[in-house]
Design brief:
Shape: rod-shaped
Number of helices: 11
Helix content: 55-70%
Largest sheet: 2 strands, antiparallel
Structural class: mainly alpha
Distance between the termini: 172 Å
Mean pLDDT: 85
Strand order of the largest sheet: 1-2
Radius of gyration: 52 Å
Number of strands: 6
Length: about 350
């Protein structure tokens, strides 16, 4: 007979079980509540486990739902951004088209204004030429075009004939001619530019006929401290705006377009009967009868030949027309006997002759 570990009654019907980690013996009467308690505990555990599984399922469903919503929101956001990007691109294309159209119209207007201005300049120049004949600027233009054509034709032919050194010699002479012509034109323009306020103050008709403000070229820009490269870029841009954008295989754009601009504006800005270094009373009847009198035609030819600088030292300051052989010693007032000298060289020559 075994004794029940709960009621301590000896009985023949005994159940065994583990309680608190020890083997226990239970009678039939005492085992019933234990089994009921175990059953309840098992049911509670199953219920809790079921609830835990349900909670986990709901948590996972909610997580999946949140993830789905975030994905949908991201897709929607990406879609809106693509639509906005497409709209912005369309707007940008439209703005670009409008800008291109505005620029095209602006360039057409500039081109038309430039053509009108150039045509007006040509008409004024031709009218002056009919009255006064070829001016100093006209003659310089002829020399320039001859030198430029010589580079294009003569130099090319000499090189093709295997006469390279002669070609380079001709090139050098023509380059010197063109550079000297540019120097003379630039000198005239610099004087006008520096005193343009005076001309405007007294209502110069020539400034009005020009049709636009005087453009500062390299010489004027460098006087305010700009570096040469910057001055050239700014000058090229300014000349392009009024239609001077010629290209040349040898000369820089700034140089070749400055000459074009100077030949365009100087016939308007300089009176056609202007003679360099001429004093008012030199044209009087008494002076014209004098043996020392030098005609306007000779003066222009001498100025053109000597490139507007002293024949001896190359200075452009305080120039004078000088008789190579003095009139007192039988010299004439022809082009061959007249030269340009600066005041210092002329005084030195006079002292030497005396």
């Amino acid at each position: 007979m075994l004794k029940c570990d709960i009621c301590y009654i000896e009985t023949g019907v005994i159940s065994t079980g583990i309680q608190n980690g020890k083997l226990k013996h239970f009678c039939e009467r005492c085992i019933i509540p234990i089994k009921k308690a175990e059953q309840k505990l098992t049911e509670l555990e199953r219920k809790q486990q079921k609830e835990a599984v349900e909670r986990e399922r709901k948590r996972l469903e909610e997580a999946v739902e949140r993830k789905r919503k975030r994905l949908e929101e991201a897709v929607e956001l990406q879609k809106r951004r693509r639509e906005e990007a497409v709209e912005l691109q369309k707007e940008a294309v439209e703005l670009q088209k409008e800008a291109v159209e505005r620029e095209r119209k602006r360039l057409e207007e500039i081109q038309l204004a430039n053509e009108t201005r150039k045509q007006k300049h040509i008409e004024i120049h031709n009218r002056q030429k009919e009255i006064f004949g070829a001016t100093l600027i006209d003659k310089l233009r002829e020399d320039y075009e001859v030198a430029l054509n010589s580079i294009e034709i003569d130099v090319k032919e000499l090189i093709e004939n295997d006469e390279d050194m002669r070609a380079l010699s001709v090139l050098g002479n023509n380059l010197n001619t063109i550079i000297e012509i540019h120097g003379m034109l630039d000198n005239f323009y610099d004087i006008i530019y520096n005193y343009s306020e005076v001309l405007s103050h007294f209502h110069s008709k020539r400034i009005k006929e020009l049709g636009h403000s005087l453009i500062p070229l390299r010489t004027q820009r460098k006087t305010i401290g700009l570096e040469q490269e910057v001055a050239e870029l700014m000058t090229v841009s300014a000349l392009e705006d009024i239609g001077f954008n010629k290209k040349h295989w040898y000369f820089k754009p700034c140089f070749i377009n400055e000459i074009g601009y100077l030949f365009d504006v100087l016939p308007i800005l300089i009176e056609p009967n202007f003679i360099p270094l001429e004093i008012n009373d030199e044209t009087s009847e008494a002076n014209q009868k004098s043996e020392r009198y030098i005609s306007s035609k000779v003066k222009i030819s001498v100025w053109r030949r000597d490139r507007g600088k002293c024949f001896e030292c190359g200075s452009r300051e305080k120039l004078e027309y000088d008789h190579i052989i003095p009139v007192s010693k039988g010299g004439s007032s022809t082009e061959r006997n007249v030269q340009l000298l600066c005041e210092r060289c002329n005084r030195h020559k006079s002292a030497t002759i005396q």
